[in-house]
Write a structure and sequence with these properties.
By secondary structure, this protein is an alpha+beta fold. Strand 4 and strand 5 form a beta hairpin. Helix 5 packs across helix 8 and helix 8 runs antiparallel to helix 9. The longest helix has 15 residues. It is globular and about 60 Å long.
Length: 378
């Protein structure tokens, strides 16, 4: 989460050399070292037509995303990342090494599937893989003036869509190549698709979106690792980010109006707003089965002010805060912890709801002196 990767007067532990993957084609599982990035997992699994639900940037670290929840192109079909964690190896605060699964240290197994980095250092994950090979995906973009029309259509379409269909809504500034030159630098709204059903049905499935006459349509067959790394080049390391987020159950017309207003006012080319759908099979896990308490939310919303130049800090921060303040009244209350900065204990409690007290008990058992505290602290 924003601003929590390093700290003053503390210790940053570098896991980047624990970087390995092993696919077992018989059990369709993927063993992943704690220092891996998601691109490593995508690459290893793809050879066996397997994938794990993850985010939308392949350079994201496996550990942080997986422990916080994990959502992206596969969420509606296969659930959250935490729903595919079978087992982890962990080093605890006292230096001991434990295996954690549904059969060993069950309380810890519950906690690490959404409770973040509060409980120890995960050196290895075992994920259940899912059959994914070549998807049918990519962006459809419209002029920013069509935001109201497209978002009102999208909110109804995505709630009722088959679980094979995924699309996140965004307002963004079109970067350079490979986009057409006439679109470079234009602020647009869009939906980035991933269809996991039969390709011969893809045109029929996407026809309602194409009937809205996108100004740019680049949706077609795409290998899963390629889709999952599509935005890597636009978000390299070293950028400054300011985050705000919410869980969303519904998008009323009043909220659409705020998206229209702030979408036109993106402060820098890297700044953006995304609405990630988290319904479908992500809803089929109980709200107390993992710490992820908002199983009834339909979207995880995030707005980020992003820029490489410190001179723009105030500009990206103000836009993000103002946007959040305007849209938060229409939210479900809490937010996805991987999209949050240090926003105080009450915000963390709200995001875990009635799972918070159980997390506190497990925290006190495994880390009574609060060694692991630079995170969404429990």
């Amino acid at each position: 989460a924003g601003g929590l990767g390093i700290c003053d007067d503390g210790l940053v532990i570098d896991l980047s050399q624990i970087r390995y993957t092993h696919v077992d084609p018989k059990t369709k599982t993927i063993r992943v070292g704690g220092g891996c990035q998601w691109g490593d997992v995508d690459h290893a699994g793809h050879a066996f037509e397997l994938a794990v639900p993850t985010g939308i940037i392949s350079t994201t670290g496996v550990g942080g995303l997986a422990l916080g929840g994990g959502l992206g192109y596969l969420s509606r079909k296969f659930g959250l990342t935490i729903d595919s964690i079978l087992e982890v190896d962990m080093v605890l605060a006292d230096g001991s090494f434990v295996k954690v699964s549904s059969k060993e240290n069950e309380d810890l197994y519950w906690a690490i599937r959404g409770g973040g980095g509060n409980f120890g250092i995960v050196t290895s994950f075992l994920f259940q893989g899912h059959h994914v090979n070549t998807s049918f995906g990519g962006p459809t973009l419209w002029n920013i003036d069509k935001t109201e029309q497209i978002l009102k259509w999208y909110r109804d379409f995505m709630v009722n869509a088959h679980e094979d269909i995924y699309g996140f809504f965004a307002t963004l500034t079109v970067p350079g190549p490979p986009f057409p030159e006439e679109l470079h630098g234009k602020i647009m709204c869009g939906i980035i698709w991933n269809y996991l059903g039969p390709h011969e049905k893809a045109d029929e499935v996407l026809k309602p979106a194409r009937d809205l006459k996108p100004d740019f349509d680049h949706v077609g067959p795409i290998p899963h690792p390629t889709l999952n790394s599509m935005f890597d080049v636009f978000y390299p390391t070293g950028l400054q980010w300011y985050w705000r987020a919410d869980f969303i159950k519904e998008i009323p017309d009043e909220a659409v109006a705020q998206h229209v207003k702030y979408g036109k006012e993106l402060p820098t080319p890297h700044s953006t707003m995304h609405l990630y759908p988290i319904n479908g099979n992500a809803h089929k896990v109980g709200k107390n089965d993992t710490p992820w308490a908002y199983r009834d939310a339909n979207w995880a919303q995030v707005m980020v002010g992003v820029d490489p130049d410190p001179v723009n800090n105030e500009k990206i921060t103000k836009w993000t805060k103002d946007y959040y303040d305007a849209i938060h009244p229409y939210s479900a209350g809490g937010a996805y912890i991987n999209f949050m900065m240090d926003e105080g204990e009450d915000r963390v409690k709200t995001s875990y709801k009635d799972n918070y007290d159980r997390l506190v008990k497990i925290k006190n058992k495994y880390d009574p002196n609060n060694l692991f505290r630079v995170n969404q602290y429990i």
